[in-house]
Every structure is written in structure tokens, then in C-alpha cells.
Amino acid sequence: MGVVDFRRKILNAATLPGWREETRRRGRRLVLTNGCFDLLHAGHVSYLEQARGLGDALLVGITGDAGVRRLKGPGRPVNPAEDRAAVVAALESVDAALVFEEPDACHLIETARPDVYAKGGDYTLDTLVQVERRLLEKLGVNIVILPEVPGKSTSATLARLKA
After folding, report:
1. Contact, 97 vs 44, CB < 8 A?
2. How many helices (H) does the chain have, and how many strands (E)?
3. What pLDDT is stored for residue 41 in this prediction?
4. What is the pLDDT of residue 122?
5. What is the pLDDT of residue 133?
6. What is the dihedral sign for C-alpha 160, 154, 9, 15?
7. Pairing of strands 142-145, 116-119
8. Looking at the domain covering 7-162, what would its CATH class be?
């Protein structure tokens, strides 16, 4: 059995277009999701596995450190973006991971041109970043909200640690 090198699964802005083209050439249906993925937990793993089941390849956009601070507040992220990407990329359900520094995922969406865009059950169509939603709808991307895994969140884990 061969060793999987998670490092080869970490893309950047320069390598994403070629990876996407190869995925398209092979006729694989691409699922895109994105998020902080700060402290990976069972909820993340279950969510990413479900997302991968929506297509043939899963690309995970990892929010950069400045974006996590904007979303989650001071003291976050706990882990730097490169570490978060490495852990996510090491999961069997993930075909590729990429850190993005932009304040929203529009450039990632535009470049990846996914067939399906997945978000967790803590979102609704109305609470998605609306500029991203409009772009996804314009591109004809199927938006899927997956069920939340109750009681599993990084914020809840950090709250327990502080208690």
C-alpha cells in the first residue's frame, strides 16, 4: 500500500487552474466548500465526507488567518492557515485544499468553477455570503446545505477548554 503525501494535495492560486482543468478533463464532478477548519473535530470530518459524496472530487478552501480573525475574533485562529490546510488535506475525503486570503470566496469560486458548492447546516441560503451566493447562482452551481452535526464546533470546544 502506497503512502499518500498530503503535501501534493495542497494547492495555491498558481496551481489551482491546472488542477481544475485536469479534474474537468477526467470528467470528475467537483464539489467546493470553504471555511476556517481551525480545530478539526468529528463534525468537520463528517461534513467533509458528506460533501465529498456530492461529487467525484472535493476541493476545500481554507480561510486565511486574517479572515479567521475577522470572522471569529481575537485569539483565532488557534492554528495557522498552513497547518489547517495540511490537516484538512490529509483527510481521505479531501482531494485538494487551498488557503485563500481574500475577504470572501468569490475568486476561489470563479477560478474553481465547481459543479456543487457545499456548506454546513449552520448556514441557510439567506445566511451565505450573498455576493458568493449570487456568483454561484450566476455560474449555475448547485448549492447544497448539509446537515449540522449537533454539539460539534470549534467555538464550543474552545469554550469548554476555558471553563
Report:
1. no
2. 7, 6
3. 86
4. 84
5. 97
6. negative
7. parallel
8. alpha beta
- Which strands make up the sheet holding 57-63, listed edge to edge? 10-11, 96-100, 57-63, 30-35, 116-119, 142-145
The b-or-e profile of 123-133 (16+ CB within 10 A means b, else e) is beeeebbeebb
CA angle (84 as vertex; 127, 121 as ends), nearest 5 = 25
Predicted local distance difference test score (pLDDT) of residue 121: 83
Which stretches of the chain score pLDDT less than 50? none
pLDDT, position 161: 63
- pLDDT score at 162: 72
φ, ψ dihedrals at 58, nearest 5° = -120, 120
CA distance 135 to 130: 9
Distances (CA, A) of 5 to 12, 29, 96: 16, 23, 11
Segments in 53-140 forming alpha helices (H) = 65-72, 81-89, 106-112, 130-139
d(CA 17, CA 133): 21
List the chain domain ranges: 7-162
> Which pLDDT belongs to residue 108?
98
Summarised one tens digit per residue, pLDDT across range 22-63 is 999 999 999 999 999 998 888 899 999 999 999 999 999 999
Say whether 78 sits in a helix, a strand or coil. coil
- Stated length of the chain: 163
